[in-house]
Design brief:
Number of strands: 5
Shape: globular
Oligomer: single chain
Number of domains: 2
Order of helices and strands: HHHHHHHHEEEHEEHHHHH
Strand order of the largest sheet: 1-2-3
Helix content: 40-55%
Largest sheet: 3 strands, antiparallel
Number of helices: 14
CATH architecture of the largest domain: Orthogonal Bundle
């Protein structure tokens, strides 16, 4: 028997849901807010002043809208659908929607083509970019950040939060610390704190950046950030823009999109993201994790290094093709078979 429902609009329901998600960290809450805004905007445009009236057929229409009119990729739709499902689960709990509506949110499966995600920043491309910067802009801030991103597979917030005292060049490691009180939290809080070893080449690049190109800065808290600009600690937006800028293909060769560099909007300051082939820090993190997986690094070591669970790595970062994964599994089975044959 259907319960009596309490009238509520989409925007108010979203506010209550986000307030209720005390289990999420602030950045995760913002990610949920961004995804739900797309849903709320559509609901309001369709005239849904009360979620009581929402049906499974309406959810199907929204899904069709996201795919056909917004051009959302299957992998993105899959990730967003988990948030929509959680939202409607909450709405059911406060008598805002019909019982069973959350179960009608379809979570799309991904085929082999979908697994080649639309950011597809392959490790070899990052290596080529690093080689290019190393020749023409060695030990610049961008060179040092890209080298650390690709070598460590860290998040941009972790890189931004590094202080001079966290970078141990003589001992070849960096230490990521959670410092929310001075605006440099780690995504996973204290659980994200960890030391990470550096290769000699990367440590050398960081050392040369520090000696030659780092702008000396000290914050009011007394902290001395490692990556700096003339305004202070490097900002998240500055990190993103640097990665977008350096991953434009025209930085190393011809434009694959037949654009004229003289008129291309992506060549303007702050608009590098307008290039279809430019990539964000998240994509460099994906390329780094894919590199480690292809090099057959121990899975538990990768999880600790990049501070992500095996499930998260599998769903969001592993860029290997299905054939690469099958080959890896076959090799693993052969190793185990040889091992047991020797006993």
């Amino acid at each position: 028997m259907q319960r009596d429902l309490q009238s509520i609009g989409p925007r108010e329901a979203m506010r209550l849901y986000l307030d209720d998600r005390v289990d999420l960290r602030s950045r995760s809450v913002e990610a949920h807010r961004y995804r739900l805004r797309q849903l709320v905007k559509w609901l309001e445009a369709e005239g849904f002043d009360d979620l009581n009236d929402l049906t499974g057929r309406d959810l199907a229409r929204f899904r069709h809208y996201r795919v056909s009119e917004c051009g959302v990729a299957p992998a993105t739709l899959r990730g967003n659908s988990y948030t929509y499902k959680a939202f409607f689960d909450f709405c059911e709990s406060i008598e805002a929607v019909q019982d069973g509506l959350a179960a009608k949110v379809r979570i799309p499966s991904l085929n082999e083509d979908d697994l080649v995600r639309d950011h597809d920043l392959h490790p070899d491309r990052v290596r080529s970019i690093l080689d290019h910067i190393g020749r023409f802009s060695y030990a610049s801030r961008t060179h040092a950040m890209l080298a650390l991103f690709f070598h460590v597979g860290c998040r941009s917030g972790a890189l931004r939060g590094l202080d001079i005292r966290d970078v141990h060049l003589d001992d070849r490691y960096v230490e990521f610390r959670h410092r929310p009180e001075t605006d440099t939290p780690l995504k996973n809080g204290r659980d994200g704190e960890r030391p990470v070893a550096l290769a000699d080449e990367v440590a050398t690049i960081l050392g040369d950046y520090f000696e030659v190109n780092r702008v000396s800065q000290r914050e009011s808290s007394g902290r001395r950030p490692f990556f700096t600009t003339a305004q202070g600690r490097v900002s998240q937006s500055s990190i993103r823009e640097s990665m977008y800028r350096v991953t434009r293909p025209c930085m190393m060769g011809d434009c694959p999109h037949d654009r004229d560099p003289e008129t291309c909007e992506a060549m303007e300051t702050g608009l590098a993201c307008k290039c279809p082939s430019s990539r964000a820090p998240h994509d460099i993190r994906s390329a780094s994790i894919t590199r480690m997986l292809r090099e057959d690094k121990p899975r538990d070591a990768i999880e600790k290094r990049v501070n992500a669970t095996e499930e998260v790595i599998e769903e969001h970062y592993d860029e290997r093709t299905l054939e690469e994964r099958r080959e890896f599994a076959r090799n693993r089975m052969e190793e185990r078979r040889d091992y047991f044959d020797e006993i």
